[in-house]
Design brief:
The complex is a heterodimer. Chain A is an all-alpha fold. Chain A has 3 helices and no strands. Chain A has helices spanning 2-26, 30-55, 61-84. Chain A is flat and about 50 Å long. Chain B has one domain (2-111). Classes of the chains: A mainly alpha, B mainly alpha. Chains A and B meet through helix 1, helix 2 and helix 3 of A and helix 1, helix 3 and helix 4 of B. Chain B: The chain crosses the membrane at residues 6-29, 41-59, 65-86.
Chain lengths: 89, 119
């Protein structure tokens, strides 16, 4: 039953990744693209966790943690660039 | 069996909330409105999915599996910081708001207060 639920939820997450990709391509300003990319990071973490549940292994948590950290650092770096014109002053 | 049922319920709740966050990002008309959807709904969705993972692996491997809690804690800490930095950057570059937004005249006041020199 859990595998059916995992397949259903991964379908939902794939659809939401498509919506995020649409916003990432169209987005009127660069900030819209940043927030679309941040949401895509969160959805990718959810997909990795689902793969771990589906295969019944705990190997993939380090990958999810790494994606979470890289997503936060890259988002804050681009925000800092827009805000100040420079990343490290 | 009952563990799989509870875990599946949490998984479906999380997937629906992630989809709601992405639909909000897709459909809302304004950047300041669009900022709400991923920072609230998607955070709740990923929290529910990680709770499902914690429940499933805690019962499968007979011992509390705490390492997913690290991801939950990290995302719940960093999502408000990201939203704050994005909204500050949006005020800085003067992104247009919807015409019927309340208190539009206060935007310039907030901008000038933020742009004051530090010393």
């Amino acid at each position: 039953m859990l595998s059916y639920a995992a397949i259903f939820v991964s379908t939902l997450i794939g659809f939401s990744l498509l919506l995020n990709l649409w916003r990432f391509i169209k987005g009127p300003h660069m900030l819209d693209r940043i927030i679309a990319l941040d949401t895509m990071y969160i959805n990718a973490i959810a997909l990795i966790i689902l793969l771990g549940i589906f295969l019944e292994t705990t190997l993939y948590y380090e990958g999810a943690l790494l994606i979470a950290m890289l997503g936060f650092v890259s988002t804050s770096a681009v925000c800092k660039f827009i805000l100040r014109g420079d990343i490290i002053e | 069996m009952i563990v799989e049922l509870i875990s599946s319920i949490f998984l479906i709740i999380g997937g629906v909330f992630l989809l709601v966050g992405s639909v909000g990002l897709f459909r809302l008309p304004d950047f300041y409105m669009r900022l709400h959807a991923p920072t609230k709904a998607s955070t709740l969705g990923i929290g529910a999915i990680l709770v499902a993972s914690i429940i499933f692996f805690s019962f499968k491997e007979e011992g509390i599996n705490i390492q997913e809690m690290l991801i939950t804690l990290f995302i719940f800490l960093t999502a408000p910081i990201t939203a704050h930095m994005l909204s500050k950057a949006a005020l800085h570059v003067r992104l247009p708001t919807e015409p019927h937004t309340l208190n539009r005249d206060k935007v310039e006041q907030i901008r000038t207060r933020q742009a004051e020199p530090k010393d």
